């Protein structure tokens, strides 16, 4: 290929990199240990602060914005 036209593998690589970047960003933000997410500097689970979903998107400047959505304690098993 001439380099001007991206192929499927290029798009897949870009998407995997974007997803990995968001996962790492969320892992750094979450200051607790929960399930398979384990942090040596925060070894305990913290339901009071972290029973949330982290949702991220790119803003119009291409920067990652993350918000926290509270999770109803009755809807999810601990």
Description of the molecule:
This protein is α+β, with helices and mostly antiparallel strands. The protein has one domain (8-70). Helix content is 33%, strand content 18%. It has two helices and two strands; from the N terminus they run ααββ. A two-stranded antiparallel ribbon has the order 1-2. The longest helix is centred in the N-terminal third of the chain and has 22 residues, at 8-29. The protein is elongated. The model has no long low-confidence stretch (mean pLDDT 89).
SSE diagram, text form:
Elements: H1 8-29, H2 47-50, E1 52-58, E2 64-70
Antiparallel strand pairs: 1-2
Average pLDDT for all residues? 89
Count helical runs.
2
- Sketch the topology as an H/E string, one letter per element: HHEE
Q: What's the count of strands?
A: 2
Q: Runs with pLDDT <50, length 5+?
A: none
Question: How far from one another are the termini?
Answer: 52 Å
In what range is the share of β-strand residues? Answer: 15-25%
The number of domains is 1
- Biggest sheet character: 2 strands, antiparallel
SSE class: alpha+beta
- Measured as a percent range, the helix fraction is 25-40%
| Rg, Å, rounded | 17 Å
Global morphology: elongated
Strand order of the largest sheet: 1-2
């Amino acid at each position: 290929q001439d380099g001007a036209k991206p192929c499927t593998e290029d798009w897949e690589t870009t998407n995997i990199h974007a997803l990995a970047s968001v996962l790492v960003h969320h892992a750094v933000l979450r200051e607790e240990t929960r399930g398979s997410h384990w942090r040596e500097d925060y070894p305990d689970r913290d339901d009071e602060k972290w029973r949330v979903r982290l949702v991220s998107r790119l803003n119009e400047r291409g920067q990652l914005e993350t918000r926290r959505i509270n999770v109803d304690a009755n809807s999810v098993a601990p």
